[in-house]
Amino acid sequence: MLRASALVLLAALAMAQVSSELITPEIRRIGSRLACLCKSCKNTVGDCAMLACHYSKPARERIRDGQAAGKSDDAIVAGFVTEHGRQALALPPNDGFSSLAWWMPPMMVGFGLALIYWFIRRMRKPAVPAAVSAIDQKVLDRYKESIEKDLAKLD
Amino acid sequence: MENVGALSLILALCFSVYSVLASLIGQWKKRPFLVVSGERSVYAVWGLVTLASGMLVYALQTDDFRLSYVAGHSSSTMSPLYKFTAWWGGQEGSLLLWAWILSCYAAVAVYLHRHKFCHMMPYVTATLMVVQAFFLLLIAFPLSPFEVLAVGKEVTAVPDGRGLNPLLQYWTMAIHPPTLYLGYVGFVVPFAFAMASLITRTPGDAWIHTTRRWTLVTWLFQSTGILLGAGWAYAVLGWGGYWGWDPVENASLLPWITATAFLHSVMMQEKKGMMKVWNMVLVSSTFFLCILGTALTRSGIVQSVHAFAQSPISRYFTIFLALGIGLVVYLILDRLDYLKSESQLESVLSRESSFLFNNLILLASCFSILWGTLFPVISEAVTGEKISVDAPYFNRVNIPIGLFLLFLTGVGPLIAWRRSSFESLKKAFLMPAIGAVLTMLVLAAFGVRHPYAMISFGLCAFVTWTITSEFLKGASAIAAKSGQNLIAAMVELTHRNTRRYGGYIVHVAIVIMFIGFTGAAFNLDTTKEVGINDTFKLGRYELKIKDLKSGNNGHYKWWHAPVEVYQDGRQIHTLTPEQRLYATGDSSSVVDIRRRLHEDLYLNFAGMTADGQKAVIQAYVFPLVTWIWVGYWALLFGTIVCLIPSKVKLQFPKTKVVGVVSGKETPVAQS
After folding, report:
1. Residues of the domain holding B472
2. Which of A10, A73, B204, B589 stands the most exposed, by the fewest C-beta atoms within 10 Å?
3. Which pTM was predicted?
């Protein structure tokens, strides 16, 4: 059992080799535009914390190699999109159907605001008509006093 | 034994179905004995589900590896505590826990309210038992935790079980799922009352008051569960994050948000008789989001590291959700008359309006999280294209929403009920606004340039000012009248209106948490391969590897890396992160954290280099993160204060029409 453990350990730990070389600001800059597709996290390639991640680690190596070959950031990202489709991108693209990912939340806020506007208009008390002035001032004062007492208790 | 467990579940299912029928028929046909027998069936269901749960726990404790569930989620080497937690470590067991907690809630709700709401209780009982029957159906048949391993027709056993994932063998993870479930499941009770009030067209405030208290208790459990999960992720997973926008995490947040909205808007119904339809929608949404969250965790619809193995139960949940939502929509539309508002909005500048905006922003946050969570599935279904919606999307959309909510947290208390004037608002906002601007200027002077961080800290100052001034204003008045000191006066003030001032304490808790969240803008990290006596720097810290040790305790093999922490040349601490390798082949990190209020130093032993000479250390500095956990304790305290009855019994008389001035149809009101 121990021997088996040691073998598994070697396999597990060897993955952690030379990790620091792949976590540079330059690699992170491009990595932050790419989704980690390991299915275990919702991070980007730039900030996936699993050093031995089966997706992020080779992705970082690929970014490093691309940078060493003098490729631009966009070209490196495009390479990932070509291979994995647009799911390789950390953010949904703002075009076609996927733009709905961005537009729906503000649209819903707009809809909510319209609903509140409608609600306020519908629920707002109408202005007090002039007829009220016909009511005896003493009666009005009594009601006002009562209302003020109620209001004081409201909170 | 497994037969007793399985039979208990089937009997519990029968009793829950009987309870539904007896309650409804008893009410329709005016047969009180049937109604009472329906209520008593609820207790029987509780007894039977408790028996089944006890059977499963017994099987786990006695290593009964004939049971597939025990073999899959426990092992003989696990401690009794973690054998117990294996109850909810797998799909079947966790559904049994769901059903058991629901049976407890149902029994308590029926027992407590059977007299007070006797005309509503048959429908409350029926609703609770419909949900109960649904979950019992799942665990009695397709996902039974009492399934035995068999070869041919012979029951067999494996020598030892697979055990619980080592990452789950941690104290917060031991209590995180049940606490979260106490929240999830608890929302069924307010929903049941809402349905009963819709069906019976029950007016009045008593049931909404009861519902609010249930919601508050379950909201507290949900908050605790979410924070326990965050604390576990932070302390165990080795990456220092507490929130990853995973679909299952999001699923737990969604009902929490709608419940928060309900806890605010219900005040409008209690005090003004307004927003009745909206409150029905919120209570129902909270319940259905709980069911959706449970479904997301178990169906494999969305990819999640938390999700249980894919299973065919998504169709059951889909049917249940579709029928439930359909019925609720019908009931609300059919009873719109009864849900009519009792009073009107007197001014746009009023507390009532601020609640509307508070609800809008909370719901916008809820929608954006739900939309982001489901969008990959929707996109693939509509266009066939897979799209990633990851943490950067959620942060980009939700940070502005969160900041606006924080702003409203400060604005609400400043606006009076009924109406405010621009003048009074100007007076109330002036000093807090100056405080916010000053805070931002001071931060800028100290070199802070992160725009969101500056806004967040400014808003924290704004809200703290408004709430503190509310406390001081009230306490000063009491102190002047009674001669008490200010602290005693604050306690007195809070005791007089626990709901209002407890709510303010919860708002302060949210501010404290936001301070912690905002600290993330200044996180630092590095990853180094280091040997004995190697040093490296992170921020103001210098870290030196003192030793590399390894050993085996029979349960797992371990590697330690004691790391000396220096600041300005002086040793201030020694941290010892650890890496473990279990006999099952699972490995886990045990991080070590130097926790301070201003920042945490967090070390993770990620592994060894291939030559076995150097340790791979991930080091992080997390500024202000401790304030998140401090905020939780404040939230707990504030919520408990809210639940304490006020010393002064407050009444909220509603305006009613007592007459009309002759010929003019102008109503004259009386309280």
Report:
1. 408-520+631-657
2. B204
3. 0.88
